[in-house]
Recover the amino acids of this structure.
């Protein structure tokens, strides 16, 4: 039986892609699951399907973040948190990057993670586990992805800082660093006749990850049995970060 059975776990950004795969895995473990998404219809459908608590949350709405965390704490409880929200709207050389796009990417991918984790830790009374979803670009260079790379590298710094600040409260914080994964985020790239095949050649295992393969690592880090793991980064990238 999973140690996550009956543990309250909230996944921020859980109605598609990697977040949805994490939510499904947690539901299968018997966790008391909460999910968020931006589209009310999708939130309702996923929550019904997984018998989960659901809330609409756009992390750009800063005031909403502590309200959603408080509602989840009161209605379900608190143990685990997964921050999966992330965007990658620009693939362009840095000198052409629109500063507004920079702000948006940093706001969703980095500031949102801090604000959600902070609200979670403010409400948590006992031990807990936080998993942030970074990227292989938390660890490596990201050509034509300056904002995304800066935000995801920032998440790795944030992971270590939070892990140290909260270790004496029994709150563990870890980072999962996926490589290229088959989701909507990579649909355009996978369909590209030149870039798609070239990308596969750069992955030592020769293929992209499935969202479920990333989800397994997220769930592993949440499990109470793995209580000695904090402040770490765990790549699920087919060998890309080893190069
Ligand atoms: N796919 C890859 O190759 C890859 C590689 C490395 C890392 N990652 C990271 O993995 C995570 C999941 O990505 P994915 O591949 O599953 O992509 P995806 O299908 O595009 O999903 C993106 C997720 O971020 C959420 N999100 C975006 N903007 C948001 C906002 N303002 N407020 C709240 N939620 C927001 C989305 O919520 P809605 O559904 O409500 O829009 C969705 O859950 C991201 O952090 C991404 O950077 C992905």
């Amino acid at each position: 039986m999973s140690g996550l059975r009956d543990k309250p776990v909230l996944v921020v950004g859980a109605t598609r892609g990697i977040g949805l795969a994490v939510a499904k895995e947690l539901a299968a473990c018997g966790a008391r699951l909460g999910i968020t998404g931006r589209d009310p219809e999708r939130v309702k459908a996923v929550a019904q399907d997984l018998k989960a608590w659901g809330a609409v949350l756009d992390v750009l709405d800063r005031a909403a973040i502590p309200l959603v965390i408080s509602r989840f704490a009161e209605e379900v409880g608190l143990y685990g948190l997964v921050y999966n929200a992330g965007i990658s709207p620009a693939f362009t050389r840095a000198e052409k990057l629109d500063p507004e796009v920079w702000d948006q990417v940093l706001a969703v991918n980095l500031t949102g993670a801090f604000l959600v984790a902070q609200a979670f830790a403010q409400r948590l009374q006992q031990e807990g586990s936080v998993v942030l979803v970074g990227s292989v670009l938390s660890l490596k260079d990201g050509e034509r992805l300056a904002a995304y790379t800066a935000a995801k590298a920032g998440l790795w710094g944030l992971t270590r800082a939070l892990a140290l600040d909260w270790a004496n409260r029994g709150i563990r914080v870890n980072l999962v660093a996926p490589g290229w994964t088959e989701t909507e985020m990579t649909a355009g790239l996978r369909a590209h006749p030149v870039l798609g095949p070239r990308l596969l050649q750069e992955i030592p295992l020769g293929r992209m990850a499935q969202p479920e393969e990333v989800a397994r690592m997220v769930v592993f880090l949440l499990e109470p049995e793995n209580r000695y793991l904090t402040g770490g980064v765990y790549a699920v990238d087919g060998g890309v970060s080893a190069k």
